[in-house]
Design goal:
With 166 residues, this protein is α/β, with parallel strands linked by helices. The protein contains 8 helices and 4 strands, in the order H-H-H-E-H-H-E-E-H-H-H-E. The relative contact order is 0.21.
Length: 166
């Protein structure tokens, strides 16, 4: 039943629901948070929102983690000079959040720290607070990156700060 419920949620997800949860105002707030964040550390943050998985991936039981890894590659988050990219991925139909960090960052910031950020964001999303949850997630990611990778000089911005809706 759990698998069937997930399939129904994904098939019922519409582009309109994604835009209602992440309207232009919210996307601008996320972008501003990322711009401010990247002044404090040498990491590069991307934020991606996907409404639902495609039917083939859904039938195969693809997890949000596996899809986040695909999106990490698709958006070329791995393609930074210092291997310092971080993807915050939201799968709206599951109200799930995944954080994928490039090897240069993941070696220093452990999975438990990323999981805590994801759970906090998911709780906000469950309550319908998408902008607050997203911005809080960017800020928590900023704290991790500032602790482990503080800005020592002005770095180039290698990845777009604007969130992407897939």
């Amino acid at each position: 039943m759990n698998r069937l419920a997930r399939i129904v949620r994904h098939l019922a997800m519409t582009h309109w629901q994604v835009r209602r949860a992440f309207p232009p105002r919210t996307l601008h707030a996320i972008e501003a948070a990322i711009k401010a964040s990247e002044l404090a550390h040498v990491g590069q943050i991307r934020f991606a929102v996907e409404g639902a998985l495609h039917s083939v991936a859904l039938w195969r039981g693809q997890s949000s983690r596996a899809r986040a890894l695909e999106v990490f590659s698709l958006l070329r988050v791995w393609d930074t000079e210092q291997n310092n990219g971080v993807l915050i991925y939201v799968l709206l139909a599951d109200r799930g959040v995944e954080i994928i960090a490039d090897r240069g960052i993941h070696a220093r910031v452990g999975e438990p720290e990323w999981r805590n950020i994801c759970r906090t964001m998911e709780a906000a999303f469950k309550a319908g607070h998408f902008e607050d949850g997203a911005v809080a997630g960017v800020r928590a990611t900023t704290q991790c990156l500032t602790t482990h990778f503080p800005a020592v000089r002005e770095c180039s911005n290698e990845l777009p700060d604007r969130p992407v809706l897939l």
